[in-house]
Specification:
The complex is a heterodimer of chains A (201) and B (581).
Chain A lengths: L21 H27 L7 E4 L2 H15 E5 L2 E4 L6 E7 L2 E3 L1 E5 L4 E7 L4 E6 L3 E5 L3 E8 L4 E7 L11 E7 L10 H10 L1
Parallel strand pairs in A: 3-6, 4-7, 6-12
Antiparallel strand pairs in A: 1-10, 2-3, 4-5, 7-10, 8-9, 8-11, 11-12
Chain B lengths: L8 E3 L6 E3 L3 H29 L8 H33 L9 H23 L17 H30 L9 H31 L8 H12 L1 H22 L6 H14 L16 H7 L1 H28 L8 H4 L6 H24 L13 H30 L6 H27 L23 H33 L17 H4 L8 H8 L11 H26 L3 E2 L1
Antiparallel strand pairs in B: 1-2
Helix pairs in contact in B: 1-2, 1-15, 2-3, 2-4, 2-5, 2-7, 3-4, 4-5, 5-6, 5-7, 5-8, 7-10, 7-12, 7-13, 8-10, 9-10, 10-12, 10-18, 12-13, 12-14, 12-18, 13-14, 13-15, 14-15
The chains are: A alpha+beta (201), B mainly alpha (581).
The structure holds copper (II) ion.
The site of copper (II) ion has 7 residues of chain A, from loops.
């Protein structure tokens, strides 16, 4: 029995380029319009929104980058926590963070409301920068310097979790970012850092 | 059938199609190896989910990362691609009543794929390739990992070539009239994407292999990431195209679903071919190697034209099912067609769950986290595996399982074993997968990283306190995972029992329910006698926009609403973050 309808399993005789039903056309048009909304949101957010992964990107020699990071830490060091320097760069400074198996170097102390240029790179393999509890995530790739303008919004004691597999100690790779309020006060318990700083002096 | 085949063959008792003797074993071996890979992957999945469920935390760190690599390879590469090879052989021969091109080369390609598979399994299980599935350099694995993947890819590429050659033979020998069926057209789409994907695989795995044996000094990690994802993500687009083809196939087999409009459905497949490969750029949205212009151009409308294609299929597949049922006389109300569908047929329930979970959970989350800025709150968190377990596993794997219930009697000529279990299996598996992927998605929204052994951070220098809700969603993930693995193991048990020890059948009486044979084969869906009249009435202008498929229009409306709400909720969440730019 030859009918006008057939399933997707049957070969299609003759010309199948036939006009679609109204409902189908309407759905295609709605879906297309929605896809254009999805597309428009990305450029729009660059213009109107405050969270964009643009930043400055350039190739960099991992060892030289790490040396720069160590110099930076020396320059603005204010204390130490678990042997890792706590570094408090002034607002507007270039800030250098290095990921390496299995730690983040150094500990950053930033001021809420101030803007910094945060450079991120890796000394060895891929790492993932994941700021907790903010849930801000970036890929940290060896040989590439990723510099983003960041402005912390409120004081707090933050963690950097590595969220890219970087070897067997990956799950121990946790760093720290301290954000102090505009008056320079920390809201979180930073006692370890303070004590070690005193001992160091 | 219209043609008298001139090659050794048999004629299928249910569908009347010609099944070439040379094609049958090729379909069978690929399907069997696919299911063995699924078994390995499913056991790995159970161990992983019981480790990620922090309250259980089963495996030690080394074995967690090792098994994670094994799981990825077996599920995403071996299970899926072997099954796709079976789909290519099936669609090009059985659906077109054709003989396969060069079966000897087909066997040689299968041999290549199998030796590649065994090589990869060996290096992974022996701890020589603890670099996970993505193997980002400078992490380096034993050369056997890269060589194994290359052998496998060359084999798969050759089978794809034989698929095209078979289409040419079928056309030349006039084994069918007119244009190829839509299902074959979908398989052609999958095959074209497979060629693009596998060539990218060669571009990246060959230099990486040379690097692993010391012939090349270094691999740029960012270029590796770009090319690897052109393989890693595009390979999932082969799945999508193959899955949609299987949707149309199961729709036709189970309830006599029809094609509403060939032009619309085929154009959507063309959109996949043109645009879907660029979409792999969305893996690099928060990478340092590329600027915003590159990121937006390569995702933006390229990706959204592929999204459009999926949204079109998301309408045409259920609409085809609705119209098919209405043309068989199930015309009551908006959803009478759905209520009176054969929910006990595992082929049908698999189809429905595949469409629903793929669209609602996989599709919506995927498009959302594939947005340049929203990716900031999703990148490498558990949201990512949450998304692809909804697409690849709930969507593709579910569709392939559903197809298997029909392939067992049609190709293997066996009854489906454990019939009662088989009728329940799609429910068990899809509910499990739904819980698993939702659990992962929500845990990721709280910032829980993927690929991470211990989120209690016991040995880390600084403590990390997750929101207490994380414990609950991880428990949901764990329970979902156990259910899903149970469903997968049930499927494997059914498939293995049927294939190797099943009750042989060559023919069966029509019109009578028989345990072990899906309903679509015992009582093939038949249109009402006045099908053309019904069709004209349903398409009458007076019915307005609701047209022939009012129920589907309501369903896609709900889908669009969910999509819009989820998408803008994510922008809202993003705006709470630090200023970043
Ligand atoms: Cu790391």
């Amino acid at each position: 029995m030859l009918t006008k309808v057939h399933s997707g399993l049957d070969p299609v005789p003759g010309v199948w380029w036939k006009p679609a039903h109204k409902a189908e056309k309407v759905w295609v048009a709605i879906a297309f319009a929605w896809c254009m909304v999805l597309f428009a949101m990305m450029p729009l957010w660059h213009w109107k929104g405050g969270q964009n992964p643009s930043g400055i990107r350039r190739r960099v020699d991992p060892v030289k980058y790490y040396q720069r990071s160590v110099e930076f830490a020396k320059q603005y060091k204010i204390g130490e926590d678990r042997g890792i320097p706590i570094v408090a760069p002034p607002p507007g400074a270039e800030v250098y963070l290095t990921g390496m198996t299995f730690q983040w170097f150094p500990i950053l102390q930033l001021q809420a409301g101030s803007t910094y240029r945060l450079h991120m790179s890796s000394l060895d393999v891929n790492h993932g920068f994941s700021l907790y509890p903010m849930n801000v995530n970036f890929q940290v790739v060896p040989g590439y310097d990723y510099a983003l303008q960041v402005t912390p919004t409120a004081a707090g004691d933050f963690r950097i979790i590595c969220n890219e597999f970087c070897g067997i100690g990956h799950h121990t790779m946790v760093g720290r970012v301290i954000v102090v309020d505009a008056a320079g006060k920390t809201v979180a318990d930073n006692s370890h850092a303070v004590i070690r700083d005193r001992e160091a002096k | 059938m219209s043609t008298a085949a001139t090659f050794p063959h048999r004629v299928c008792p249910a569908t009347g199609r010609v099944i070439a003797a040379a094609a049958e074993p090729l379909i069978k071996v690929n399907a069997v190896v696919a299911i063995v890979s699924l078994l390995v992957g499913a056991i790995a999945a159970l161990l992983l989910v019981l480790t990620r469920w922090q309250a259980v935390h089963l495996l030690p760190a080394v074995w967690y990362y090792r098994i994670l690599g094994v799981h990825g390879m077996n599920m995403l590469i071996f299970f899926i691609i072997y099954f796709e090879m079976a789909v290519l052989w099936f669609t090009s021969t059985v659906l077109l009543n054709a003989r396969p091109a060069n079966p000897k080369l087909g066997w040689f390609s299968f041999g290549l794929m199998l030796s590649g598979t065994l090589m990869v399994e060996w290096v992974q299980w022996t701890g020589r390739a603890d670099v996970l599935f993505t193997s980002y350099p400078p992490l380096k694995a034993h050369p056997g990992l890269y060589l194994g993947v290359i052998l496998f890819a060359v084999g798969a590429l050759t089978v794809t070539g034989l698929f095209f050659a078979t289409l040419v033979i079928a056309k030349r020998e006039k084994t069918y009239e007119g244009s190829v069926p839509l299902v074959v057209y979908g398989a052609v789409t999958a095959a074209i994407i497979a060629v693009i994907t596998l060539l990218h695989g060669a571009m990246i795995y060959i230099p990486t292999f040379l690097w692993s044996i010391g012939l090349i000094k270094s691999i740029d990690p960012e270029i590796y990431r770009m090319l690897w994802w052109a393989l890693g993500h595009s390979s999932q687009q082969i799945n999508v195209a193959a899955m949609v083809a299987v949707w149309y196939m199961l729709s036709g087999l189970t309830i006599g679903g029809v094609v509403l409009n060939e032009k619309v459905s085929r154009s959507a497949f063309v959109l996949y071919v043109l645009f879907i490969s660029m979409a792999s750029a969305h893996h690099l949205l928060v990478d340092p190697g590329f600027g915003p212009a590159w990121k937006i151009v390569n995702t933006s409308y390229f990706m959204y034209m592929a999204v459009l294609a999926s949204m079109i299929h998301g309408f045409t597949v259920p609409a085809g099912m609705e119209l098919g049922m209405r043309l068989r006389g199930y015309t009551d109300g908006l959803f009478g067609w759905l209520r009176r569908a054969p929910w006990g047929d595992p082929g049908f329930s698999s189809l429905v769950f595949s469409v629903v979970v793929f669209g609602f959970v996989g599709g919506i989350t995927g498009v959302t986290i594939g947005t340049e800025q929203i990716n900031i709150i999703a990148h490498n968190t558990l949201r990512i595996p949450g998304h692809f377990h909804a697409t690849v596993v709930s969507g593709t794997a579910m569709a392939f399982m559903g197809a298997t219930y029909y392939l067992l009697p049609l190709i293997f000529r066996r009854k489906v074993a454990f019939w009662g279990l088989a009728r329940m299996q799609p429910y068990l598996f899809s509910i499990g997968m739904l819980l698993l992927s939702m659990g992962m998605t929500f845990a990721g929204s709280f910032g829980v990283p993927r690929r991470h052994w211990d989120i209690s951070f016991a040995q880390a220098p600084f403590d990390v306190q997750f929101n207490p809700a994380v414990d609950i969603v991880l428990a949901v993930m764990g329970i979902g995972g156990i259910l899903a693995v149970t469903g997968a193991l049930a499927f494997i048990a059914i498939a293995v029992k049927s294939v190797f020890f099943g009750e042989a059948i060559t023919t069966w009486p029509l019109g009578k329910d028989i345990a072990g044979i899906p309903q679509g084969l015992t009582t093939p869906p038949v249109h009402a006698a006045n099908v053309d009249e019904l069709n004209d009435a349903l398409h009458a202008e007076s019915r307005g926009i609701a047209g022939a498929t009012p129920g589907t229009l309501v369903l896609v409306g709900i889908f669009l609403l969910a999509f819009v709400v989820y998408y803008f909720t994510n922008w809202k969440l993003l705006s709470f973050l630090w200023k970043v730019g």
